[in-house]
Design a protein that fits this description.
The chain has 505 residues and is an alpha+beta fold. The chain has two domains: 277 residues, no CATH class; 122 residues, Immunoglobulins (Immunoglobulin-like). Helices cover 17% and strands 26% of the residues. The protein is built from seven helices and 20 strands. Strands 10, 11, 13, 15, 16 and 18 form a six-stranded antiparallel β-sheet that branches. The chain has a five-stranded mixed β-sheet with strand order 12-20-19-14-17, with no helix packed on it. A three-stranded antiparallel β-sheet has the order 3-4-5, with no helix packed on it. Strand 15 and strand 16 form a beta hairpin. The longest helix is centred in the C-terminal third of the chain and has 21 residues.
Length: 505
């Protein structure tokens, strides 16, 4: 699936039709739990200082992904004897694996074995270190695109797809941004929802795994160690998640700020998660429009000769060499979750390497509504959407407030802006001599454009020292639909004093 046109830009061609000034204003952002910033937990930090060997290397783990400790409460790094300079002598056999010996007092790795370990390859998922606000912004874009779509679906890899008719033309976009999919993963793991319905055939945990896979490098690999580390970086090991079982916690000996301490580490418990590669890809894309489990790809039929082929996802992407497919990891739990994410990555990589030309794709199915409701995303930026004086002398005339309303599209917007100004000590704020609330209407606001109003106000007598609480709220026009209203209201405060002097009299 290739993005033909992003829905948030659908109105760009029509900008010149309306004589309004200003561009689109960024909408207020949400934390992963649905609240507004500042957010709690995750995003942008690694927590306490790591142990000597970094805390990001591949470790000896059990079926839950929990590190298996030695008798000294030390984590045990998996050894890779094939690494250049790694001495096999002295490596410890723990059954299915070899582990690197560590110092019993510090849990550090002896320099002689420093080349024997491998780090988890984060690739693009290093973006998980982005701030909560950045991830919240990316998630909001996903929510809006899905909310204003005429149809949503899943592509052959399980990526989220949104479609909308502009006139008679179907415009389709795919949620393939690494940051957006990390944000989707985090929100789904935290709450089980992103705030709008998921497409047909998508459960919360399944789509969380797919989102993780989309965020990964196409040619990389999702494994248990990477998943464990990203959960910690995203803050998911703290607080509640959608998983039925609480995290598994252990105490590990490691170096913290120059001293050796016992540190509690917690790991998400994916026991309830079952995954079978066959079940997953027999149900994709969803809805099926080429046959259950079938997709389109470019097939080489001769030297420098190709054709668009239709075939089963499983046998094409995961062939076993005997006409069937490799089943992959089938035991569920965190290993199954990592397998699900990596399978999504593998299908995306195949589609990237064997892409169908844009003019050769079968259109994503989407039935137009017979009498579609106008849909658009109205927003007031928390950063600049409501501008009021921070300090006001009560008797001063001609102070002003400004409100900017942005239309994120895709349709033209009409609506009502309501501004309230409430002095804490009582009394009124006046515009043209009249008290609020102050109501403004706008019509046919083109996608990508903004409605701006600036009003002069005074404070009615008696004048006292107080504060004014301002609120601006925008609502869609009658019969229209603004499916995402979390960015429709902002607040601000002004301090009112009695004189301009420094004495405060």
């Amino acid at each position: 699936m290739k993005t033909k046109l992003l829905l948030t830009l659908l109105g760009a061609l029509a900008i010149g039709a309306v004589g309004l000034s200003g561009g689109a204003i960024a909408a207020p952002k949400l934390c992963d739990d649905g609240t507004r910033p500042p957010c709690n937990g995750g995003g942008g930090g690694d927590g306490a200082s790591p142990p000597d060997y970094g805390d990001l290397i591949i470790l000896y783990r059990d079926e839950l992904g929990v590190p298996i400790l030695d008798e000294n409460s030390c984590q045990q790094p998996i050894a890779f004897p094939a690494n250049v300079g790694c001495p096999e002598e002295g490596l410890i056999d723990v059954g299915d694996d070899l582990v690197v010996p560590v110092d019993p007092a510090t849990c550090g790795i002896d320099m002689a074995y420093s080349t024997c370990t491998n780090e988890a390859d984060f690739g693009r998922t290093n973006l998980a270190r982005s701030s909560d606000e950045v991830l919240a912004s990316q998630l909001e874009d996903v929510i809006i695109n899905l909310a204003i779509a005429d149809c949503t679906s899943l592509d052959p890899a399980g990526r989220l797809v949104y479609s909308r008719y502009v006139g008679d033309q179907l415009m389709t976009g795919t949620i393939d941004s690494p940051l957006q999919n990390l944000a989707v993963y985090k929100r789904l793991m935290r709450t089980g929802s992103i705030g709008v319905p998921l497409p047909q055939g998508a459960t919360a945990l399944e789509q969380a795994a797919r989102g993780f896979g989309v965020a990964m490098d196409k040619a990389g690999e999702v494994n248990v160690d990477l998943l464990v580390y990203l959960n910690e970086i995203l803050g998911l090991t703290e607080g509640t998640t959608v998983l039925a079982n609480p995290p598994e916690c252990i105490f590990v000996k490691e170096e913290v700020m120059g001293s050796i301490e016992m540190v509690e580490k917690c790991f998400l418990n994916y026991t309830e998660f079952d995954y079978l590669r066959e079940t997953n890809f027999r149900a994709l894309p969803s809805p099926a429009y080429l046959g259950d489990g079938y997709f389109e790809f470019l097939k080489e039929i001769g030297p420098n000769t190709y054709e668009v082929a239709v075939g089963p996802i499983l046998e094409t992407v995961f062939p076993d060499g005997a006409g069937s497919f490799e089943p992959g990891y089938t035991d569920g739990n965190i290993g199954g979750f990592a397998q699900a994410a990596d399978d999504t990555r593998a299908v995306i990589n195949f589609m990237h390497n064997w892409p169908v030309p844009a003019d050769g794709e079968t259109p994503v199915p989407c039935t137009p509504l017979p009498d579609p409701t106008a849909q658009y995303d109205l927003s007031i930026s928390e950063m600049s959407g409501l501008q009021v004086p921070k300090q006001i002398v009560a008797s001063t005339e001609g102070r002003e407030f400004t409100v900017t309303v942005a239309n994120g599209g895709p349709d033209q917007a009409s609506g009502t802006l309501t501004v309230t100004a409430v002095p804490a000590a009582g009394g009124d704020v006046l515009v043209d001599g009249l008290p609020g609330p102050f109501i403004f209407e706008f019509y046919e606001l083109v996608s990508g454009m903004s409605y701006v109003t600036t009003q002069h106000f005074t404070i009615a007598e008696p004048h006292v020292r107080t504060t004014i609480d301002w609120t601006a709220t925008v609502m869609p026009g009658e019969g229209d639909d603004d499916p995402y209203t979390e960015n429709n209201t902002v607040s601000a405060t002004s301090n009112v004093k009695l004189t301009t002097g420094g004495g405060g009299h």
